[in-house]
Amino acid sequence: MPDPLEDPRLTLVGLLAEVFTGMEAEGAGQLAEHGLANAEFEVLIRLARSPHRRLRMTHLAAQTSLTTSGITRVVDRLVARGLVSREACPDDRRSTYAVITASGLDRLEAVLPQHLDLIDRWLVAPLDDEQLRALESALRTVRDAVRPDATAGAVEQIPEPTAPTR
Predict the structure, then answer these.
(1) 82 phi-psi bin (left φ>0, alpha ψ -120 to 50, beta other)
(2) Cα–Cα separations (whole angstroms), residue 108 to 8, 52, 103, 154
(3) Domains and CATH numbers, the chain
(4) N or C: which terminus of the chain carries fewer CB neighbours within 10 A?
(5) Residue 119's CB: how many other CB atoms inside 10 A?
(6) For residue 96, what are the contacts with CB-CB under 8 A and spacing of at least 6?
(7) CA distance to 2, 53, 62, 75, 151, per residue, from 156 (Å)
């Protein structure tokens, strides 16, 4: 009977965890220089890359590793700092949108050059183009199996905001 501790699946998951936690730890210091925690950056980047730069709070929770109460706390902190605002959903009184503000976009613009350098150094540079395409494809497949709601709201048909945020 094979030793389960020698199962290559454990090695694969361990490597994935080591890569993620290593990049996250390095990124945390870089983000802290700009006054952001990892979760705050994740919320800002997801809002900035979403249609009309906003997401329903439920979709934002589904796209992140946070619970709905956790996402509420992060958004509360970002609202207090003027980086995000809340907007009522015009067709569903139970829903609220989180919307990145001009200040939130400015903060991302300040963070992204260093953040992209980190991604280049730790993820892109060690791989060739074929490896990068294969990695992206594999990660999307696994992500969709593990987190089927991870793109919730990304292509949702939502009405234009009443006032542009930037």
Answers:
(1) left
(2) 39, 16, 9, 19
(3) 10-146 (1.10.10.10)
(4) N
(5) 14
(6) 56, 57, 86, 87, 88, 89
(7) 48, 12, 14, 20, 10
As a whole number of angstroms, the distance between CA 80 and CA 26 comes to: 26
User: pLDDT (tens digit, 9 = 90+) per residue, 45-89?
Assistant: 999 999 999 999 999 998 987 888 999 999 999 999 999 999 998
What is the sign, positive or negative, of the torsion defined by CA atoms of 124, 130, 136, 139?
Answer: negative
Q: What is the DSSP letter of 61?
A: H
What per-residue confidence (pLDDT) applies to 161?
53
Distance CA 65, CA 54 (A): 18
Question: Token pair 């709601």 is at which residue?
Answer: 149
Bridge partner list, 153: none
DSSP state letters, 105-158: HHHHHHHHHHHHHHHIIIIITTS-HHHHHHHHHHHHHHHHHH-TTTTTTSS---
Return the SS3 of 45. helix
3-state DSSP call for residue 160?
Answer: coil
Structure tokens at 150: 């991870």
CB-based burial label for 50 (10 Å; 0-12, 13-18, 19+): buried
